[in-house]
Amino acid sequence: MPKPTIAMSVKEDTMSFTPSRRALLSGAAAGMLGLAACQPSAPLGSGSGGEGVGEHPSLAYLPSTQPANWSAVIGAVNEKMKADIGTTLDAQFLNWSQYAQQVLLKFTAAETFDSALNARWMNMVQLVSSNSLADLTDEIGKHENLSKALAPELIEANKWSGRLWGIPQVNGAARIHHFGYRDDLAAGELTDFDSFLKYLSDVKQKNPDITPFELHNNVGLNQAITFSPLTWEDPQPVSQAFSGGSIGVAINPDDPTDIRPVYESEHIIEGIRVLRDLYEKGLVNKDALTLDSATANSQFAAGRFAAHGVITDGLGSQSLKTLQAAVPGASLANLLPYRDGLAAKPFQTFQSDNFAVINPAGDVDRALQIQDWLSIQENHDMLAYGIEGTDWTASGEDKYEALSDYVFPGFALLWRIDLERMPSTISASEEEIFAWSKKFENFTLDPLATFYPDVTPVKKEDAELTNVATEHLKPLCSGAVDVDAGLDALRRAAEAAGIEKVMEEMRTQISAHLAEQG
């Protein structure tokens, strides 16, 4: 029987936040390691909007920091929203390092607010299990603009056992982790794995002040996957895990019930070995375990790194303006981690990395009204890009030029495939990849596309495996520990935490799902 392997996940790396955009993501968006630290529930956020517009605005919790020019933008948004639908929005911004745990506490305590970003790679599984989210299965069709903006395939792929627990936040059909790099530092076009590795080596030799590749403390299995030569040759199905912070299982594409822990996947192991080699050669930064993603992205934009991980959200070139201010003449390009490039047809579940989830203790109808209002192009653009003429201007039919430093985390509230504009700075390679990622037909449907495991029977073991992943898996995926010794320690710790019981439960649930699918 062939050994199962694991390929790139649709979201953003479930072993990480991916907040750079986004996400971002870099990130975004298969592996499993939630990174939220438990913090007190107050103070809540870095900013809000809607004060004075309405007595009780709709409160939404979003990750990231308050955008530049926020008061003016939210004032304009709320003025129009109030006139159109009689309500306003109050967005509270929470730091990524605190976001997941803070939002979990607010939902489970039934605090009064309307919506928030959540995801499987955070704690959405736990929130669904505790009945802390509003069931939206029968609600989307009641809102014309929202319904039109969400493809039927997207809705079906994001139902859990037939129920929809959030509004999928995507700006494309697929979420592919790949590489963004400084094209001005390349001797020519990068087309394959070997040429990319040579590029990193050349950067170190010719530009000693630039670190070739950026890793940060949200690093996850997707980084090991993109650096695996086996993945480049043979993309495999998405891994599965009971929760975002835990250790997942690799899936055999010929028999999805034939599973094994991800740390036994040849694809993952080979990627980890490459990362360890890069670490020892000084081709990746050695402070990845302590470097937060926001700082890492700022350093990339300042020219301190040559390449980093990105996803297919069309925003990889968003930092170009800042980068060119620091490094005149700098340019960017993107590279897919597949031998066959755009013809690869990799597996995709089409499951969203992120969801706008609604609090049943809040005003569900109002939250959905706002989601519907944000599904109109003019309204979407105002919140996504800011005030036209001040923060942005249109560039052709589907691009925009940023005029200010306003950046809103649209992936947390209002991403719609057909409404998103691309930055005018987008590179030709990224634009081509982004256009490719928007078409469902460019991908192979994953054998477990509509499968969402229920953690309840193994909740205790899964929680212990989350700790194991934090202690052992994350350092392996940043290249920081010896591969063989690290894998051995990971294996022993996972076995002690109950990985066999977890795998047996996963196998049982997969079998039941496949039987139900016929």
Topology:
Blueprint: E1 58-63, H1 70-85, E2 89-94, H2 96-108, E3 115-118, H3 124-129, H4 144-149, H5 152-157, E4 167-169, E5 177-182, H6 193-206, E6 211-213, H7 221-226, H8 229-233, E7 249-252, E8 255-261, H9 266-280, H10 293-301, E9 305-311, H11 320-326, E10 332-335, E11 347-348, E12 354-358, H12 364-373, H13 377-385, E13 392-395, E14 399-402, E15 422-423, H14 428-437, E16 444-445, H15 459-477, H16 483-497, H17 499-517
Parallel strand pairs: 1-2, 1-3, 6-9, 11-16, 14-15
Antiparallel strand pairs: 3-12, 4-12, 5-9, 5-10, 7-8, 13-14
List keywords for this structure.
single chain; 518 residues; alpha/beta; D-Maltodextrin-Binding Protein, domain 2; four-stranded mixed beta sheet; 17 helices; globular; disordered N terminus; TAT_signal; DUF3502 domain-containing protein; DUF3502
What does this structure look like?
The protein has 518 residues and is an alpha/beta fold. It has a domain at 58-173 and 352-423: Periplasmic binding protein-like II (D-Maltodextrin-Binding Protein, domain 2, 3-Layer(aba) Sandwich). Helix content is 36%, strand content 13%. It contains 17 helices and 16 strands. Helix 15 (459-477) packs antiparallel against helix 16 (483-497). The radius of gyration is 22 Å and the shape is globular.
